[in-house]
# Entry
Amino acid sequence: MRKLILIAATILLAACASAGKPTPVDKTEPRRVVGTDNDVRIDAEIFGDHLANSVNIPLKYDITNSRPAAIAIADLVPETSYDPETQTVTVSIGSEVPGESLMPRLIAIAPGEKKSFTTVARVNILMPSSTPLARIPHAMRIKVNFLDDTKQFEKLIAIPERGVYDPKLSDELFPKWLERNETVYTNALPMRWTMPQQDETPAPRRPRRGRG
# Structure
């Protein structure tokens, strides 16, 4: 049943994205995370309550810019990472560094503007063991990377392509990207860890030898 619900949520989010402007995050939703730093706020809904070695997690998130200047977000597929020390999975939106040759499209968010997005985070975690001492994931949070100065990146804002291959532009923007990048983290949302199902088919019994 949970898998059916997750699949239905994924289809719903895809339909919302294809239909046009995504709907804002429901702030009454219990499975919501929030993060605010330096006048940039993120509200997000996480559709699903479990993690596994390999699982897709649909997300809906709003980014609100309360700064006096515009910010920009790289339009990239989210990346996920796992920290066994905190037992937390982090979904990274945007990018801390540009590509070496392929530069991503940037989405600008004007002062006082809020934009809504939907996406699916692919989580892949290789657990070394399933013993009681293993530090299994038990929480998820979201990290948003944004550029605090859009003027230096105008060549990438709202371009029709998802990315452009331009090694010269990449070299030019690399130090500026590192300098202007900022991050916002949300709180961590509790998640359940689901172990992969093992084959419980009993082994065939060996026939007994007859008495001669």
Residues 1-20 have pLDDT under 50 and may be disordered.
